[in-house]
Amino acid sequence: MMPAGLGSATGCRRHRESAAEYVRDLGGMTMDTVEIEGKLQTEEMLLNMGPQHPSTHGVLRLLLRMDGEIVHDVIPYIGYLHRCKEKIGENVTYQQFTPYTDRLDYLASMNMNLGYVLGVEKLLGLEVPERAQYIRVIMAELNRIASHLVAWGTFGLDMGAFTPFMYGFREREKIMDIFERTCGARLTYNYIRIGGVSRDLPEGMVKQISEFLDYFDPRIPEYHDLLSYNKIFVERTANVGILPLDTAIAYGVTGPCLRASGLKWDLRKDEPYGIYDRFDFDIPVGKGEMGTVGDAWDRYMVRIIEMQQSARIVRQALEGLPEGPITGKVPKMIKGPKDKELYIRTEAPKGEIGFYIVSDGGKTPARLKIRSPSFSNLSVLPVIAKGGMVADMVAIVASLDIVLGEIDR
Amino acid sequence: MTPDEIYGRLRSTDMDAVPPDDVEKLSADDASELTLKVAAESFGKVAAYLAKDDHLGFDSLMCLSGMDLGEELQVVYHLFSIKHKHKVTLKVNVPKDSPKVPSVEGIWSTAGWHEREAFDLFGIEFEGHSDLRRILMPEDWVGHPLRKDYQAPKEYRGIPVLPREEPE
Fold first, then answer.
1. For A407, phi and psi rounded to 5 degrees?
2. How far is B17 from chain A (nearest CA, A)?
3. Which of A6, A154, A306, A376 has the most CB atoms lying inside 10 A of its own CB?
4. Any CB–CB contact under 8 A between A79 and chain B?
């Protein structure tokens, strides 16, 4: 039972002179009053979690208002990584902005590239060759696996299990190798370009990717043994940070976090972009297997199943991969159409990445707004973390799987 | 619902006496998505109606963007209905010297942070917002960087903020 006034975001720190006052403030609760000698410290404690803290996954500062171990309020402070992406977008040409999208969600640069590039192509009405479409799907889905592997590994790390982290990075390394051989970079690829992709798959790449998939599929049961059904892990995550569906929708939560709350919603299926309508895959939703629908464990599980489904998509794309050119006809200097705008959203590993591109006919966009998934996903944190223990905070932040690069832009 | 049906539905009701001129259709008749320009005074009522009406059911605010049009500032709302799978875009123009738009935080909670961002970067004031303060820039930053006429300061707390010299 939370006393009135404590829950409000603007409420200031209250000082109480005595334990009796504290009991009164708890309102309605009956307690035996014990006389204590001297002055007892009973006021709420303000605790800064971050900006330098391993479990905040980047430079995020959470100001916790705590009563002992109970978190009464969480106030996230963001912006430490703000690099004026939207302002830069207004000052560089359409092609020049693709490398900047790499640095939004740097764990899933391919998906960031894809979202932006699809928007520009739609704005200009460009055609993309079949082969490039397939390569894009392969790369985007591999990157989704890589991103979820980091989410999986760090989730374990935050819960005190170090081994999953090493396992996750072992698998991710193989994906990094694939990307490195394909485009030369391991983190910021700038691979998916307006009109196609920057270069063709190198020789033997199809074989390398299928070998990776053959290696990866049997790893999932291993993950379940190691972490998913581990007693301690389940205790720490089940029934923690429960996110009800209506709250999730109201706060604009998307991606695995939304699906974990029970809504079968995936843009790849519901609003197919590119060639996603050609593939057969399932959308996992949270079932409350270990606790309640929408708890931290559900969000964890949705990501694991999504990795399996992404592997399925990559297999199908490898099978259907046609020969042909990898870039369509793209003007050397892109001039946007006069007074045209569009909002495009695609399914990135963290959720829906949206680009609102406004063109006034110039060489640069008149406005480029980036709607990032982690931004909205993090905004729900104060709601779901309230009333929990401080240790649960770590589990909840880990389960939301945020990347500060796209929150701060 | 098709764009025409959404527009028709909005027009057929009186929406707590919103003057008809306050809602203007911007998109072409054959456009696949509806874009409306709404006067700032009526925006609160229109937004509430879009969210609450059973046939419209816009339960999701996909994106909220600020815009600098030169003379005026603009807020663009991209709405989506998960239930009915249709979209609408709303635009609200406000004068630069008093950019006041009613907050929709009470209708779509996600607007809370998005409005803070538009306030931070464009200086648009959202009336009725519970906690309107800067979100991406430092609290003591002066000016709103995404405005077209924004001049970056020479330094911030002793740290030089030098805009790169463009070679002519």
1. -70, -45
2. 27
3. A376
4. yes
* DSSP conformation class of A108: S
Instruction: Quote ipTM for the complex.
Output: 0.87
User: Distance between CA A179 and CA A320 in Å, rounded?
Assistant: 20
A124 touches A337 (CB < 8 A)? yes
Is B133 part of the contact surface with chain A (CB cutoff 8 Å)? no
Helical H segments across A27-103, by residue range = 85-89, 98-102
- pLDDT of A51: 81
Domain match, A101 and A8 both: no
Domain with B103 in it: 3-147
Q: Which domain holds residue A4?
A: 1-43
Strand partners, A370: A355
Domains in chain B, number? 1
**Interchain contact, A356 vs B146, CB within 8 Å:** no
Minimum CA–CA partner of B66 in chain A: A369
In this prediction, residue A288 carries a pLDDT of: 82
Amino acid at B70: G
The reported pLDDT for the residue numbered B39 is: 86
Angle between helices A130-158 and A109-124 (to 10 degrees): 140
Together in a domain, A110 and A249: yes
Q: How many domains does chain A have?
A: 2
Domain CATH number, residue B95: 3.30.460.80
Sites in chain A below the pLDDT cut of 50: 1-15
Give residue-wise pLDDT tens across range A323-354: 889 888 888 888 888 888 889 999 999 999 99
A-interface mutation test, from B52, B63, B87, most A Cβ less than 10 A away:
B63
Q: Are residues A119 and A8 in the same domain?
A: no
pLDDT in tens, A20-48: 555 555 555 555 666 667 776 677 888 88
Place of tokens 């991606």: A255
Cβ-based contacts of A375 with chain B (< 8 Å): 113
Chain B contact for A375, CB < 8 A? yes
Q: Check residue A32 and give its pLDDT.
A: 66
B57 touches chain A (CB under 8 A): no
Closest-CA residue of B relative to A249 is B60
